[in-house]
Amino acid sequence: MQIVNEGLKAGDLEGVVSSTFSVDQYKSKMGDDRNIMVLCFTVDGQAPAKDLEHFAETGYADIMDADATPGTLEDGKHKVFVEFQRRESVDQAIRKFLDDLKKLTNIETFSFTYHKRTNPFEASAKNLADVLPRTPEAYNQKINALRLGETKDFFDKFQMLEVHLDNNIISVQKHGSNEKLKFELHAFGETQTLLKEVRAFKIDQESMSECMFFTKYFGPYQVTKTNEDRFVFSKGGDSALLSKNGW
């Protein structure tokens, strides 16, 4: 393995970079996610991770930043985040970067996952153009659609509710009922990560009654109320942080 300052040659990263990377799974550190696309590569070892970071930062006008995680992850691997400016031609910029990376890794075909989805796409010219949102407007539309799907899956596992999401406002209504509940969605994701945003919980009788009502309405969720008058709905390792909207 060549050290960073000596540069990289063909095959220097063979066997240490995963052929599957993620797009828009992680937040940008350079600015708003709607304006910046984050690619995340998994690498075996800190030295090759730093090599990939340096390679990405050199000679690519569309790459705004590259950063390798300083410490190892639980599986002993490292992540390298590569941030591209989100614009119409970003798919072509990614293709050029991947074509060069193929020479370093001897990987014939890269694949990618999008956002929180785990199903991979081949990183072909067509898939990069079709799957990736290449403008801020397209990003907002795609993320809203994904959030709606995730929200419906989370709150309507047994298809007993009508669930709508509009600008982070969730409307929930049981089939055949005229009662509609509205919430603002503040966060959604893995429970332990979401709980970092919660300072303390309310345990007074009124709060416990509200949580009991939601448990009866939505089904087998663990519902708790925070000191900021928000509710944490938890089930199966995932949680949603909501507050009442207009009621």
Measured by DSSP, the beta-strand proportion falls in 25-35%
Q: What structural category characterises the helix and strand content? A: alpha+beta
Could you tell me the radius of gyration in angstroms? 22 Å
- Give the neighbour order of strands across the main sheet: 7-8-9-13-12-11-10
Q: Would you tell me the overall average pLDDT? A: 90
- The outline comes out as elongated
Percent helix, as a range, is 25-40%
Counting structural domains, the number is 2
Number of strands: 13
The number of helical elements comes to 6
Which ranges are low-confidence, i.e. pLDDT below 50, for 5 or more consecutive residues?
1-5
Order of helices and strands: EEHEEHEEHHEEEHEHEEE
First-to-last CA distance: 62 Å
Please outline the major beta sheet: 7 strands, antiparallel
Please summarize what this structure is.
By secondary structure, the chain is an alpha+beta fold. Helices cover 30% and strands 30% of the residues.
Written overview of the protein:
- The chain folds into 2 domains: 4-134, no CATH class; 138-244.
- It has 6 helices and 13 strands.
- The chain has helices at 46-57, 90-105, 125-131, 136-155, 191-195, 205-218; strands at 20-23, 36-43, 63-68, 78-85, 111-114, 121-122, 161-166, 169-174, 180-190, 201-202, 222-226, 231-235, 238-244.
- It is 30% helix and 30% strand.
- A hairpin with a 4-residue loop joins strand 11 (222-226) and strand 12 (231-235).
- The protein is α+β, with helices and mostly antiparallel strands and 247 residues long.
- Mean pLDDT is 90; it is low at 1-5.
- It has a 7-stranded antiparallel β-sheet.
